[in-house]
Amino acid sequence: MDLGIAGCGALVGGSSSGIGLACADLLLAEGVRVVLVSRGEERLRVASAALASKHGRSVSHVAADLSTAEGAGEAFRAAESILGQVDIVVNNAGGPKSGPFEALSDDDWERSFHLNLMSAVRLSRLATPGMKARRWGRIVNITSTSVKQPVEGLMLSNSIRMSVVGFAKTLADELGQFGVTVNTVAPGYTGTDRLDQLAAAKAERTGVTKDSVLESWRGDVPLRRIGLPEEVAAAVVWLCSQQGAYITGVTLAVDGGRTRASL
Question: CA–CA separation, 263 vs 251, rounded Å?
Fold first, then answer.
């Protein structure tokens, strides 16, 4: 199916690996011009080279820390210079520190605030003037199913990511009249480095093996498996499509049915 977004310009955060990389890959497959953004230059270089080889065209990248105002501004300006215009923004950043309430300092809370909320706020603020002027744009925030059903041991994710949902819902109201959609995708257990780290941390806290943690997580999912990054990316890219133009302000769980909420 032609999703009608070939030629658009996209900035994808956290795209040197995992879900962000999968989003960049599927957008490129749709003919979108993509700029990868992440903190690590070497991982970005490897990722962009692999995608360029796969898709047979140049793929640009920018090394920047999206948790800072300076990094977000640098990344957006570079992407706009490379692409001419930024039509699609995928707000994606690493997960915050895991652990229970008493293990978290003020610095942990502040770092999560800037990493998970302000990175999305800042990139969206930079992108929306051009989107409004062109009367077309797509903003997709990647959070976690913790916004629908809290996850044990993820106090920061459960708390800060909820603010992204409130931000996105309100921004969708403000930008709808300009043909700009704003949505949130909430992945469940997905096979990334982050999931591996969380499983290892839980195993250490509880005195069991990492494999047993992963097996228990699979058992919590009606589909009885861990999701793939490209399955989350498919939902993100659909929300960026012309066919998804009448979907805005939603928070879509991509979690194999794990979230038990009815809505």
Answer: 10
In the chain, pLDDT over 90 holds for what percent of residues? Answer: 86
| CA distances (Å), origin 148, targets 37, 143, 152, 170, 184 | 27, 10, 13, 17, 12
Q: Where are the extended beta strands (E) located within the chain?
A: 9-13, 33-38, 60-63, 88-91, 137-142, 180-187, 251-254
Other CB atoms within a 10 A radius of the CB of residue 176 amount to 13
Pairwise CA distance, residues 100 & 156, whole Å: 9
User: Which tens digit of pLDDT belongs to each residue from 161-195?
Assistant: 999 999 999 999 999 999 999 999 999 999 988 88
Residue 263 has pLDDT above 80, yes or no: no
Of 99 and 232, which is predicted with more confidence? 232
**23 touches 12 (CB < 8 A):** yes
Instruction: Report the Cα 244 to chain-centroid distance in Å.
Output: 18
Q: Which two tokens stand for residue 81?
A: 């210079």
Q: How far is CA 152 from the centre of its chain?
A: 21
Return the H-helix or E-strand segment holding 120. helix 119-134
| Structural domains in the chain plus CATH codes | 9-188+227-251 (3.40.50.720)
